[in-house]
Amino acid sequence: MPRNQEVIRQWKVLHALESSRHGTTIPALAGELDVTTRTIRRDLAALQEAGFPLFDERDDEGHVRWRLDGQVLKGLETGFTLQELCALYLSRNLLEAVGATPFQRDLTLAFRRLEKLLTPRMRRFLDRLPGVLVAKRGPRTAAAGASSDVVGKLLEATLHNRVASMTYHSVSSAAVRDYVVHPHRLAFAQGGLYLLAFVPAYKDIRTFAVDRITSVSLEKQTFVPKEGAGDEVFANSLGVNTGPAAQVDIEFEPRVAPYVRARVWHASQQLREGPGGALVLSMNVCHDWALRSWILSWGSFARVLAPAALAKELRTDLQAATERY
Questions:
Q1: Which CATH number describes the domain made up of 1-137?
Q2: Three-state secondary structure call for residue 182
């Protein structure tokens, strides 16, 4: 049996023992996990060797029941069960996906504290699991996270509704600009940290990449947050845009239809069968670059049916790309 499968089964044994109020028997565990009683005995021995506080006792009917000692933390008031602490410890591997953010240092310190709550043998056992539970890091911003001073001031402005003045390097205009903003939300998306703020000069909510904010100062005056502003972060976009949503209909060829059908690309999506096994996907989303690049990523297997203006933009993008070759 593959080693990974063995570790996952032993994790299930731990979970079954913790969730059983009065303990459980070896035959019951074997039946639940569809293995032999001999396998369960080996699992229990391995878990005990790893330092998990398992013990057995005989009940009034003479059956031997196994339990997990809930007092393993020796009275430490953490508010977490042993299983929850183990699960948090394991999540280190998943949280590596947000590495190089301004919060990475705090996460590292938090996990160091968590490690102290588990014995070395427990940690060695749990360290075997990340081999089967992995998270691939997505693209991150070129700057390895924003300055802690900038993020700290933005957090304070957001929490206390403080007006902020900031200097921002705009990529689209290739210029450095000064803004007065009302910060509403900080959001982590697509490998970057973003500020959603109301800009009085534009009378609109705008999105700013935090790593391109070069300086922030907090003003004395406060603001009243716009109701509902930023509650659903980038809800209308496949990327990091806060623009209005409009319907788009895309037809996918039969060859890729199963892949399209297998995922929820946006909460608004609707699917219907097209001619000859094709699939038509409808969504209410921003008609931004994130949408266009996603459609283009399907190559010749996708075709925009509506709106005509979006189809025209994509045709222009394709023609420009062809000219480069």
A1: 1.10.10
A2: strand
> How many whole angstroms separate alpha carbon 301 and alpha carbon 18?
50
What are the extents of the domains in the chain? 1-137, 148-222, 246-323
SS (H, E, C) 85-149: HHHHHHCHHHHHHHCCCCCHHHHHHHHHHHHHHCCHHHHHHHCCHHHCCCCCCCCCCCCCCCCHH
What fold is seen in the domain 246-323? Alpha-Beta Plaits (3.30.70)
> pTM for the complete prediction?
0.63
Question: Which class for 60: exposed (0-12), middle (13-18), buried (19 or more C-beta within 10 A)?
Answer: exposed
Whether omega for the bond prior to residue 183 falls within 30 degrees of 0, making it cis, is: no
User: What gap in Å lies between CA 80 and CA 121, rounded to an integer?
Assistant: 19
Q: How many CB atoms lie within 10 A of CB 117?
A: 18
Distance in angstroms (rounded) separating the CA atoms of residues 25 and 104:
43
Q: What is the full per-residue pLDDT of the chain (325 aa) written as tens digits?
A: 455 567 778 878 888 887 777 889 999 999 998 999 999 999 999 888 888 888 888 887 888 899 887 655 443 445 666 667 677 766 766 665 455 455 666 677 777 877 777 778 777 777 766 555 555 666 665 444 456 778 888 888 888 899 999 999 988 778 899 999 999 988 887 777 889 999 999 998 888 998 899 999 999 999 998 876 656 778 888 988 878 899 999 999 999 999 999 999 999 999 999 999 999 999 999 999 999 999 999 999 999 999 999 999 999 999 999 999 9
Q: Which two tokens stand for residue 177?
A: 């600009």
One-letter amino acid of 113: R
Strands (E), the chain: 54-58, 64-68, 162-170, 175-189, 192-199, 204-209, 213-222, 246-252, 270-273, 279-285, 302-306
The CATH T-level fold of domain 148-222 is SH3 type barrels. (2.30.30)
